[in-house]
Amino acid sequence: MRAAPVGYMCGVTIRAVVFDLDDTLFPEATYVASGFRAVGEALAREHRIEGFGERAAAVAAAGARGDVFDEALRRSGVAEDDLRGLVPWCVRRYREHLPDIALFPEAHEALENLRGKVKIGVLTDGWLVAQQGKVAALGLAARVDAVVYSDSFGREHWKPSEVPYRAVAEALGVAHDACVYVADNPAKDFITARALGWRTIQVARPGQTHPAVAPSEAHSAEVSALDLRAAMAVLAGWMG
Ligand SMILES: [Mg+2]
């Protein structure tokens, strides 16, 4: 049995709530830490290189982004000549590891509270195998109606491509103006959702990975909330 649609805003009923994944439903930093640990364990086991996980965490904490693996391997005593082969090996291990991560406590509440009231979706960016690992570790497939991975349409259709937004609305069977996107990164999450007619709520937690400041007015969400619980209170107001 399905609950009746609830709430009205501008004459349009909200029928679907779609969540971003990283730093919206779970803390992205915990995935990074989990990945460094997994790669460190694999390096110790298969290459007898010790201490990589701790070094990678330290390099990342110092602000490095693109070359964390290279630098952590150098600090672990790997010669320059060996980096070219070992870095891609590490990247693959990182993306393919089954992460040790957990939903934010308020994400459990949100998913539970919305269940039966609206369709629930997840729309996530990033390398397919990595995002699939996150969804599996979090047990999300059983708790939502659709999970859309932008990477399944190719790298050129990562957000803000409209392709994955259209795909999730279609998978949920809901018109764009009845969708809400709840997400954390104004650089890419909201501009297309808004252009398609979705409503948008930004979760702007202190300490999140990506800057909470929108690069332009068009990139900003309709409303900003300090955590998912506050975002759900906004949503409840819209739903009446
Ligand atoms: Mg995110």
List the helices and strands and how they pair.
Layout: E1 6-9, E2 12-14, E3 16-19, H1 28-47, H2 52-61, H3 68-75, H4 80-96, H5 105-114, E4 119-124, H6 128-138, E5 146-149, H7 162-172, E6 179-183, H8 191-196, E7 199-203, E8 223-225, H9 228-239
The chain binds magnesium ion.
The site of magnesium ion (MG) has 7 residues, from loops.
Overview of this protein structure:
This protein is of the alpha/beta class and 240 residues long. The protein has nine helices and eight strands. Helix 8 links the parallel strand 6 (179-183) and strand 7. Helix 1 runs antiparallel to helix 2 and helix 2 (52-61) crosses helix 3 (68-75). The radius of gyration is 19 Å and the shape is elongated. The two termini are 21 Å apart. Mean pLDDT is 94; it is low at 1-9. Magnesium ion is lined by residues 20, 22-24, 183-185.
- Strand fraction equals 5-15%
Within CATH, the superfamily of the largest domain carries the name HAD superfamily/HAD-like
CATH architecture of the largest domain: 3-Layer(aba) Sandwich
Straight-line N-to-C gap: 21 Å
**Mean of pLDDT:** 94
Percent helix = 40-55%
Task: Please describe the structure with a list of short key phrases separated by commas or semicolons.
single chain; 240 residues; alpha/beta; Rossmann fold; 2 domains; six-stranded parallel sheet; two-stranded antiparallel sheet; 9 helices; 14% strand; disordered N terminus; binds magnesium ion
Concise overview:
The chain has 240 residues and is α/β, with parallel strands linked by helices.
